[in-house]
Request: fold
Amino acid sequence: MRVAQVKEFGGPEVLVTTEVPDPVAGPGEAVVAVSVVDTIFVETQIRSGAFGEHFAVQPPYVPGGGIAGTVRAVGEGVDEAWIGRRVITSLGFSGGYAEQAVASAAKLVPVPDGLELREAAALVHDGVTATALLESTGLGAGDRVLILGASGGMGTLLVQLAKALGAEVVGVARGELKTSLVRELGADAVVDATSPDWVALARTALGPSGADVVLDGVGGDLGLAAFPLTADGGRFSAHGAPTGDFAPVDAAEAERRGIKLLGIGDVQLSDEEYARLAAKALTEAASGRLHPVIGGEFALERASEAHAAIEGRGLRGKVLLTT
Reply:
């Protein structure tokens, strides 16, 4: 079968298409014929050689942690009724950029009838994490929420889900193209992060007391600048690091102000929780209440171009690979 493989750590050009043996399902596993692959920013960081202390990945390897496709075979102990079903699943951080992939049967999630696999694939990671974030922060009706990176794959979902809960949404994105998308998705106010006074603009939009919840999917200096916008007694989630690191928030300051700090560890899920939240996100999309924004689709052979597009930050929403 064909795969896109990272031969060595480096730029997007290290992703090359090659042939490897077809996979075989072991006990408790299933082989999925992959149709669409979710492609996320952290995969570009791992490919570059960053975050080695967090991800035990060494070249040559096949990237890709989230897929949508059809179950082709199952291993020992797995119900054969799965064969032929359309599913999404999370593989971790490798194995997905391929025509076939082996997945844990415990993390197979059926795709509802009427929902296309491309839309389902766009929810494999971001739909699950977005739903988990809203549960962990306890966002509810009447809360004011500040969403950093609101035009990205997960940010666009967070805007929609937060509005559906009855929250007042202030989105932060970069440039007119991206801020206009966030506005179209229903945000009550949108702030352009390229403006030198974006923090003051966000403060005005949120009101003098600030945000009950800050969802920081960006990290770095931008996330750190957003921390003072959190209301006393609020919740600040530093779960994103496309800037290279999570926001270095002062835990002592947060404790003094009664702010609950959450991070990427708070959305690390068991197989059961993953399946529950994925099914919830898929149901919302199938009903038409949640619309994944897909900014770019690339054939498997163009995986290097997909990574370059993600790193260029010019696209809005999700980037997908198709086989």
About this structure: The chain has ten helices and 15 strands. The chain has a mean pLDDT of 95. The first strand starts at residue 2 and ends at 6. The two ends are 11 Å apart (CA to CA).
